[in-house]
Amino acid sequence: MSIEFEFKDRYDIFDLVSIIALLRAPGGCPWDREQTHNSIKKNFIEETYEVIEAINNDDVDGLREELGDVLMQVALHCEMESERSHFDFYDVCDDLCKKLIIRHPHVFGDVVADNCQDALASWDAVKNQTKGIKKQSESMVSVPIELPALMRAQKVQGKASKVGFDWADADGAFEKVYEEINELKFAISQNQASAVEEEFGDLLFSCVNISRFIDVDSEEALKSATDKFIRRFKVVERLAEEQGKSMKDFDSKELDSLWEKAKEILTD
């Protein structure tokens, strides 16, 4: 049984909301009707990362498509709550517009912000006030635990830095890394599994501290390092195949030699 629907040459946001409602209505799509917030939450994350991929690849057409997929996720979640008479897409838009106005007193009010730093300070001040955040620790707790660990660590450290809880310069952060390496080595020597995990976490956290001082995004840096490792690994595989062997046929010293050659090839 077909549903009533007006086909158009060009659709808008109102059409999107209507289409999502039709998909979840009786006679719509069986899959869409069965979905809940929990069942599609990972889809939301996946679509968001596909947006990032399109941005990294400078793929304008891909970005346009993937932004649409993210918007679809927003519309789906809103429709689920609309069915419960809690809120709908337009309530979310209204809330967002009001929040943007309130958090930009330097645009819609009398606060002066002559640069990005002033604008961010203004945003943070209003955000803390509206959310009732009075202590910096409360601001740290507000950083979502669901964020990638490196990203969360960098955000939490940044909030600590705003109240002066930080190293004076990168040298202090580097010294802390050396200290954590020694503590990790000691924990390993004592064969203490729980301590090893804790000290390894402290080491990673300390490395993130350095990233802030050298103005590097730790999450992006690790992603790039992983991508670089994969590129080099592929060359090592190829070099092994050119000798009619599998990588398993080489000992660690030989593999290290192939790795160094791969590095040379990729830098040529």
Q: Which terms summarize this structure?
A:
mainly alpha
Task: Furnish the topology, listing elements before pairings.
Elements lengths: L12 H12 L5 H5 L2 H20 L3 H24 L5 H14 L2 H4 L7 H15 L5 H6 L7 H13 L8 H20 L3 H21 L4 H25 L9 H16 L1
Helix pairs in contact: 1-4, 3-4, 9-11, 10-11, 12-13
Oligomer: single chain
Total DSSP E strands:
0
Class by helix and strand content? mainly alpha
Major sheet attributes? none
Task: Sum up the overall morphology in one term.
Answer: extended
Question: What is the strand content?
Answer: under 5%
What is the number of helical segments per DSSP (H or I, 4+ residues)?
Answer: 13
Average pLDDT value?
94
Query: Which residues sit in consecutive blocks of at least 5 with pLDDT less than 50?
Result: none
> What order do the SSEs take from the amino end to the carboxyl end, as H and E?
HHHHHHHHHHHHH
Distance between the termini: 62 Å
Tell me roughly what share of residues is in helical segments. over 70%
Provide the gyration radius in Å: 25 Å
